[in-house]
Amino acid sequence: MQQRTTEAQEINAAVTLPRWEVPRRARATELPSILRSLLQNKVAALGVLIVLGMLFVAIFAPFVAPHQLEGEVSIGEQLRRRLKPPAWTEGGTSEFLLGTDSLGRDILSRVIYGSRVSLTVGFTAVAFGGTIGVILGLISGYSGGLVDDIIMRIADIWLAFPFIILAILLLSVLGPGLDKLIAVLALGGWVGYARVTRGQVLAVREKEYVEAARALGVPRMRILFRHIMPNTLAPIIVISSFAVATTILAEAALSFLGLGVKPAIPTWGSMLADGRDYLRDAWWLATFPGIAIMITVLGINLFGDWLRDYLDPRLKV
Amino acid sequence: MLYLPLDATREQLEAFRHRMGFDQPVHIQYLRWLGRAVRGDFGTSLRYTKPVFPLILERMPATLELAIAAQIFALTLALPLGVLAAVRRNSIYDGLTMLGALVGQSMPGFWLGLMLMLIFGVILRLLPISGRAGPKHLILPAITLGTFFLARDTRLMRSGMLEVLGQDYITTARSKGLGERVIIWKHALKNALIPLATMVGMDFGALLAGTVVTETVFAWPGVGRLIFMAINQRDFPLIQAAVFLIALVFVATNLLVDLSYTYLDPRIRLGEK
After folding, report:
1. Is A267 left (phi over 0), alpha (psi -120 to 50) or beta?
2. CATH number for B239
3. For every residue of B122-173, which 3-state class applies, written as one string?
4. Which of A45, A98, B126, B218 is the most buried (most CB within 10 A)?
5. Which pLDDT value is given to residue B37?
6. Residue A269 within a domain
7. How confident is the model at residue A21 (pLDDT cuts 50, 70, 90)?
């Protein structure tokens, strides 16, 4: 019964009511319950706290970091500073809390600046990949026939191949750069969104309210984006949250292999690559950037777990 | 140009390009490659100046060894861990297992590798940290590659088990008076394995891809490291052949997984309606 009324509301909204009425009403009841559920779940709240904290650090890196990236340091000073251990160990100074690397640069500051690349790449690549995937999935599911076949066969071919190898290949040809890194990682994720969206569209498009909208002469594009798409988004939001986590891990792996942004910009992955060369003499180089990655990804995963349970418990893994 | 001397003349360059077919349009190059590939000729490596196919094949055992060891490591631990977590749902054991799994999924594999090298290789000096010479060398790379899958499989095993344990036939088995152990390990486990079996098959591609990073970290002489070096050195024939082979293995394992369903769940028979 309840579903009927919402369907009726949808049709009403589309046909007679002004456009802004429905989303506004929905938002007014939805938001507090999301927040309440989030605050009740301590683990999820911790995840959100971690993600927000990392975002804060990334945005305000110049103010948070104890040392700036481009310090005018003489070679002698560099030599004096190089490979200092963390402050709490023998030989460490409070000037460099987490120690310094082989060029005398402060690890803590570089970890802080490194969050910028990881988070930028993680969020933007997922946003681009998700948009491409959702649009292709909508088209595929709604039009059916040949278009559907073509898009889904391309998706099959895409999945028939481990993505990270393709990413290595593309980046080694394209060269370093933040934009290229984002583009390549965005390409990697679209299939998942497209398939899920298509499935959702297939389930929704034969519903009565869509038929009703069609009967009332609502244009195709409007049906697709106003009536069908909102009902397909819940799993997409869930997938995206986990995708940010895996994208950050992929970015770290690519940077570790030397295929990320330009060498001068600190990233967690490239710091770990430096650290590998000094594993015997300076354990801190390879330790702290990894912990930063782990905490960030863990925070996103905790949040994603909760989001999935909240939006769509059927997806529970 | 990586493959000619620095002082190569223009003629030498042209001759090299012509010999390799690089002076042809891309689609011609591709058709030529395809024409040879279907006859089993994948060309010659620019770097090693040897046919690429044997070059890859001779490294395949090392990669398969690593991938299989990682898979065994992940599955042998994930099965009992996941089943116990499901059986003792909401206990401390369950909570710790799930937390561990989440952490395992949140770590970059190569970083875990570095930390294992640091702890077991540098500090404790228990295990070798690079190369491939005997079973001891396999331990750290296999753990590094397998941990992500261990974490994910444990979660899958737990949720699969939870779903099965709520079904009617388990209640029937209980009411027949069967022991809890028989119910869990005999009746429930087989059905709970289906989602896991799907993932394990699809993982094979991810495992192969994961070997690129893991093999680079541990200097493991397998296909992954070969591909990474080939890409860095722009050794195109080698890259093409390796990519082709990986896709082939990937598709073949997916087929095997589909076939294994019919064993695990006889209700699934593809093609029957």
Report:
1. beta
2. 1.10.3720.10
3. HHCCCCCCCCCCCHHHHHHHHHHHHHHHHHHHHHHHHHHHHHHHCCHHHHHH
4. B218
5. 73
6. yes
7. very low
What mean pLDDT is predicted for residues A220-246?
Answer: 88
Lookup: tokens for A91: 């030989």
d(CA B22, CA A39): 61
As given in the structure block, the two tokens for residue B193 are 């394995």
Chain A residues with CB under 8 Å of a chain B CB are 160-165, 168-169, 172, 245, 249, 252-253, 256-257, 269, 272, 275-276, 279-280, 283, 286-287, 289-290, 293-294, 297-298, 301-302, 305, 316-317
Domain, as residue range, for A198:
2-13+54-291
**Three-state DSSP class for residue A312:** coil
**Residue A301, in any domain of the structure:** no
Whether residue A194 contacts residue A134, with contact meaning beta carbons closer than 8 Å, is answered with: yes
Spacing of C-alpha B128 from chain mean position: 22
pLDDT for A15 equals: 45
- CA B255 to chain centroid: 16
Task: Kindly tell me the burial class for residue B130, based on how many C-beta atoms sit within 10 Å of its own C-beta (0-12, 13-18, 19 or more).
Answer: middle
Determine, yes or no, domain membership for A25.
Answer: no
What token pair was written down for A207? 């519903």
Q: What whole-number percentage of chain A has pLDDT above 90?
A: 29
Strand partners, B44: B51
- Enumerate the residues of chain B whose CB falls inside 8 A of the CB of residue A287: 115, 118
Residue B219 inside a domain? The answer is yes
Residues B174/B226, Cβ–Cβ less than 8 Å: no
Q: B15 lies in a domain? A: no
Tally of domains within chain B: 1
* Model pLDDT, residue A295: 94
Domain annotation covers residue A95:
yes
Look up the domain containing B205 and give its range: 50-272
> Which residue is it, tokens 């569209």?
A201
**Which residue in the block uniquely carries the two structure tokens 């998700």?**
A130
Asked if A95 and A256 touch (Cβ cutoff 8 Å), the reply is no
Amino acid at B107: M
For chain B (length 273 residues), average pLDDT per consecutive 10? 67 74 75 75 78 86 90 93 90 91 90 91 82 84 92 90 86 85 84 79 76 88 88 82 80 77 66 47
**Complex confidence, ipTM:** 0.80
Rounded distance between C-alpha atoms, residue A181 and residue A167, angstroms: 9
- CA-CA distance, B255 to B249, in Å (whole number)? 10
Please identify which residue in the block is written with the tokens 């941990």: B147
A42, A126, A208, B234 from B215: Cα distances, Å: 39, 28, 55, 19
DSSP output for B171-239? HHHHHTT--HHHIIIIIIHHHHHHHHHHHHHHHHHHHHHHHHHHHHHHT--SHHHHHHHHHHTT-HHHH
Q: Do B208 and A162 touch (CB under 8 A)?
A: yes
In a domain? residue B9 = no
Domain for residue B14, yes or no? no
Rounded Cα distance between A199 and A222, Å, is: 19
Angstrom distance (rounded) from CA B16 to CA B1: 10
Q: Which candidate, A317, A306, A238, A292, places its Cα nearest to that of A117?
A: A292
Domains: count for chain A = 1
Cα A155-A161-A166 angle, rounded to 5 deg: 105
| Chain B nearest-CA residue for A158 | B247
